[in-house]
Amino acid sequence: MHRISMLDGAELPVNKVMAVGRNYAAHAAEMNAAAEPVIFSKPVTSLVSPGEPIILPRERGSIHYECELLVWLKDGGTNLKAEEAAALVAAYGLGLDLTLRDIQAEAKAKGRPWTLAKGFDGSMPVSRFVPVGAVDNPDQLEFSFTLNDEVKQKGKVSNMILPIGELLSYISQWITLERGDLILTGTPEGVGPVSPGDNALMVLHNHLEQPLHFS
Ligand code: MG
Questions:
Q1: What's the pLDDT tens digit per position in 8-22?
Q2: What is the distance in A from the centroid of ligand 1 to the CA of 187?
Q3: Fumarylacetoacetase-like C-terminal domain: from which residue to which, for each copy (predicted)?
């Protein structure tokens, strides 16, 4: 069983991992893509817990960071309304949706799935998580990603195309959500390459900081 860790050290099980591409208009624009959310999944084996080594693939072309807000669900459902879905969120964290960008571009060109480009082992380093009760105003959450002391990405929940409740509602029209599901809510603009030896910092403003080292 794969798990996430809360700030207080408690551990919660991870069931499945769902993700959305293109949930911020400015990132869709930098990828020359329509600002139309795309749902995909990452295997639970992509998860790297805080403190575990982040080992980047070799000889597979460019690897991009995509820093994203993650939500962990305490319960699930099917065909949920946005308000019902939003109420399932029990914890917030940050993570990287690491992407083999050259492999993904090739898959896009050939009309193939992104699975290997986004689901390889170690493709989702995550922070510790903060309980929903510690977040006064989830609609105002902001986060940032710094690579080698340079701020690369700044994200605001208020800039999402599909807000969290609507995103979860949309997924639940197709795929039943369950307790333990971890959802990546999309990346803001500023994605770019990461290499072995790089150091990074994910910050969920007012809540947590997670240093990362890439090997
Ligand atoms: Mg992403």
A1: 999 999 999 999 998
A2: 5
A3: 16-198
In the DSSP assignment, the letter for residue 72 is E
Closest CA to 98 of 141, 70, 144, 62: 62
Looking at the structure of the chain, the number of domains it has is 1
Ligand 1 center–CA 97 separation, angstroms? 5
pTM above 0.70, yes or no: yes
Q: Is the dihedral of CA 126, 165, 81, 172 positive or negative?
A: negative
Residue 97 lies in a domain: yes
Could you tell me if 33 and 195 are in contact, meaning their C-beta atoms sit under 8 angstroms apart?
no
How many Å lie between the centroid of ligand 1 and the Cα of residue 186? 5
Query: Which residues hold their Cβ within 5 A of ligand 1, which is an ion?
Result: 66, 97, 187
Phi-psi region for residue 148, left (φ > 0), alpha (ψ -120 to 50) or beta? left
Q: Which domain holds residue 12?
A: 3-210
Question: Could you give the 3-state DSSP secondary structure of residue 124?
Answer: strand
